[in-house]
Amino acid sequence: MVAANKEMVVYCFDTLVAHYNSEEAPPPAFDEGQHPLCVTWKKVANGGEPRLRGCIGTLESRCIVNGFRDYALTSALRDRRFAPIQAKELPYLECTVSILTNYETALDYLDWEVGKHGIIIEFTDPSYNTRRSATYLPEVAAHEGWTKTEAIDSLIRKAGYIGMITEQLRKNIRLTRYQSTLYTMSYNDYVAYVRTTRGTAPTTNGARLGNY
């Protein structure tokens, strides 16, 4: 099984930096594979808790090299919940890569563990008779301090449902649970890694950013 690692995060940072420089990113230092994956960007401001700046991935298996290249940019620049990340924000970013594994069909909407499982829900919106779906990565519910029911209700809203959330609606959910491996790195740790392994710090349009 492929596990998330440092080189995958480095490749995501490389890809974003290369985008700002209108260049090609250096080739990745990890092997090919086929897995569902996700890239999450957060921003640390004024020493506070990192705040989400973009998170997009795929629940279907795909080539992880192309996947991390594509979703590093998609999550940074095209997450519709946020303005695109700008180059000047790089020093304040941290990146998390997730490799998703162990997909299982749950018995019901409570058949999963907070902090262990990510969840995918699918249900029919009774107001419009349309199918809706959404997912949270394994770390989300634990980070937010949610109970399982609170996480489910939040995910129902994330899926776009605006009606009353009833117990009957919850019971009609088809839930798939999964697990993940993840790796997180700050921009300054990325810069230090690049300096150590390549002998020079990354730049954006010729200017160095960060503490190096």
From TrEMBL:
Record-annotated membrane-spanning stretches: none
InterPro entries from the UniProt entry: AMMECR1, AMMECR1_dom_sf, AMMECR1_domain, AMMECR1_N
Lineage: superkingdom: Eukaryota
Domain AMMECR1: 1-194
Pfam families noted in UniProt: AMMECR1
PANTHER family linked to this entry: AMME SYNDROME CANDIDATE GENE 1 PROTEIN (PTHR13016:SF0), AMMECR1 HOMOLOG (PTHR13016)
Protein name listed in UniProt: AMMECR1 domain-containing protein
